[in-house]
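Thread: Newbie trying to understand structure tokens

Hi all, I'm a second-year student working on a class project, and my supervisor (Dr. K.) asked me to get a predicted structure for one chain before our next meeting. I've only ever worked with sequences, so writing a 3D structure as a token string is new to me. If someone could post the tokens and maybe explain what I'm looking at, I'd be very grateful. Here's the chain:
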Amino acid sequence: QDKAGETGIIRSSIIKKDAISDHQLLVKVHAWAMNPADHMIQDTPLNFITYPLVLGEDIAGTVEHVGSTAASNFKPGDSVLDLALDSATFKPEQGGFQDYVVLDDFLTCKIPDSLSFTEAAVFPLCIVTAAIGLFSKRKPLVNDGFVKSLGADKVLDYSSPSIVDDVVAELDKGICAGIFHAAGTVTPTLQIAQGSKHKPFVASVAPIENAPNDIEAKFIFASSGSDIYHEISGATFGGFLSDALASGAYKVAPKLEVVPTRASRGSRKAWTFSGRGFLQRRLLLRLSEM
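---
Reply by user tm_fold:
Sure, no problem. This is what the structure looks like when written as tokens:
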């Protein structure tokens, strides 16, 4: 994409194996997941984004080539999921919506046999966003049964007129590490933080304006290269994620909506759907049946 607000252009380019650094991998992509962030970056001018840009963060595929250091953990033929970083590094070869992508090994995780490429592609951006928001020093509510099936202990109705007080009451029963705001307006989340005795910090994927003076609130967006990910990658991609996927502790949710065409032809169709906002479905592009 050459400019915000314009339709992306499909181009061919060559990635040379000798251009891959010691800590990188070349991956042949089999599935791409769509994110609200992709839609926002395509349509909204952001002063920290540099163009031209290859969109796409969530991918899953097969390792084709590994750098010398990355070879200690990965080998050609491995099935992996990974976070693509062009929107943070401004290197087009690291953008997700391509047939082959150059990826950093510290944001790569092997996929267990129990997961398809399509299922695995939903995880990368979700896990790093939450991990950075809640645990980095740099610092939505749906169906009750659905959320509890994913492991939630308590589910509250966001449409309740007393939702702010209800959440504050639950938070104040224990210790709160922080609040990760994943969707929608951040105002109620700031009100919850201010009302809690813990005064927890807020990490939000939505821009923050007029935060209360007594609340630390940060907008999460990787606009300063890949360094921000190093702090949490060891405990996520290099730590519990592979075990959590293999054991089933991490579940593929919400329901997947697969656009049955390859990325170059299916991305525009998927873009139309993603712009409408899906709450309990996740859009995927699939190269082939895997």
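A couple of things are worth pointing out once you decode it. Residues 275-280 have pLDDT under 50 and may be disordered. The longest strand covers residues 24-33. Feel free to ask follow-ups in this thread.
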